[in-house]
C-alpha cells in the first residue's frame, strides 16, 4: 500500500497532475523521471480473489531512455518511487528484471520485472519439524529463500500439526490469513 498521508492533497486534486517517477538500479544507479518514457505497475493475486490471507505480487513494466553510462540490466533489481508534488515520495516496490528488449541499439529499453513474491512458486519443503507454529514456518521460509520478515507481525498462537501441500507463496498467504492479514 502506498502511504500518501503526507503528500500534498492539492497534487492529487489538480486536473493537470503529473506523476514523477524515480527508478534506482541496484541501489546506486538512478534514472530520473525525465528518462522514463512509460511505466506500468500491476498487482496480481495468486487466486484472483481478495480474501484474508491473499498473497499479492507485483510486476512492473518500464520503458526508458538508457542513461550514459549505460546500466547493466541482467541479473539486477530496481526500486521505484513516485510523487505528485516532487517532494513527498512513495515507494512502489523492489523489482527483479525478467526481460529486457530494445529496437534501437539500447538507446531506449523496455523492461519487465517482478517482485520477490512472484518467484515463490516452489513447493514448500520444510527444514523444520512438525507440528510447528506459524512463526516457525514463516522463519523457515525466510531462511530458505533469503526473505526479510516484518518484525511487527502478530502471529496466530496455534500449532500446525502437519505439512500440507502448497507453494512457499501459499504458506505465506495462509500464515497471513491465520493472523488476520494479507501477504
Q: What does the model show?
A:
The protein has a seven-stranded antiparallel beta sheet, with no helix packed on it. The chain starts with 8 loop residues before the first helix and ends in a 5-residue tail after the last helix. The protein is 15% helix and 30% strand. Helix 2 (134-145) packs antiparallel against helix 3 (168-178). It has 183 residues and is of the alpha+beta class.
Please tag this protein with its features.
183 residues, alpha+beta, 7-stranded antiparallel sheet, disordered N terminus
Strand order of the biggest β-sheet: 2-1-5-6-7-4-3
So how many helices? 3
Biggest sheet record: 7 strands, antiparallel
**Mean pLDDT figure:** 81
**Runs with pLDDT <50, length 5+?**
1-9
Helix/strand layout:
Blueprint: H1 9-13, E1 20-25, E2 29-31, E3 36-45, E4 56-65, E5 77-83, E6 90-101, E7 108-114, H2 134-145, H3 168-178
Antiparallel strand pairs: 1-2, 1-5, 3-4, 4-7, 5-6, 6-7
Helix pairs in contact: 2-3
In summary, what is this structure?
The protein has 183 residues and is an alpha+beta fold.
Amino acid at each position: 500500500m502506498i502511504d500518501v498521508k503526507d503528500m500534498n492533497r492539492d497534487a492529487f486534486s489538480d486536473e493537470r497532475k503529473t506523476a514523477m517517477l524515480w527508478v534506482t538500479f541496484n541501489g546506486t544507479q538512478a534514472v530520473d523521471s525525465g528518462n522514463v518514457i512509460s511505466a506500468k505497475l500491476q498487482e496480481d493475486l495468486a487466486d484472483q480473489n481478495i480474501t484474508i490471507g491473499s498473497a499479492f505480487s507485483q510486476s512492473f513494466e518500464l520503458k526508458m531512455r538508457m542513461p550514459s553510462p549505460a546500466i547493466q540490466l541482467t541479473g539486477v533489481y530496481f526500486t521505484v518511487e513516485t510523487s505528485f508534488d516532487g517532494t513527498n515520495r512513495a515507494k512502489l516496490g523492489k523489482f527483479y528484471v525478467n526481460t529486457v528488449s530494445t529496437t534501437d541499439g539500447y538507446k531506449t529499453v523496455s523492461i519487465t520485472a517482478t517482485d520477490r513474491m512472484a518467484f515463490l512458486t516452489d513447493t514448500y519443503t520444510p527444514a523444520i519439524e512438525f507440528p510447528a507454529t506459524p512463526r516457525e514456518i514463516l522463519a523457515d521460509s525466510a531462511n530458505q529463500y533469503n526473505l526479510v520478515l516484518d518484525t511487527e507481525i502478530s502471529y496466530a498462537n496455534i500449532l500446525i500439526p502437519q505439512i500440507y501441500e502448497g507453494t512457499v507463496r501459499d504458506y505465506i498467504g495462509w500464515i497471513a490469513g491465520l493472523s488476520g492479514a494479507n501477504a
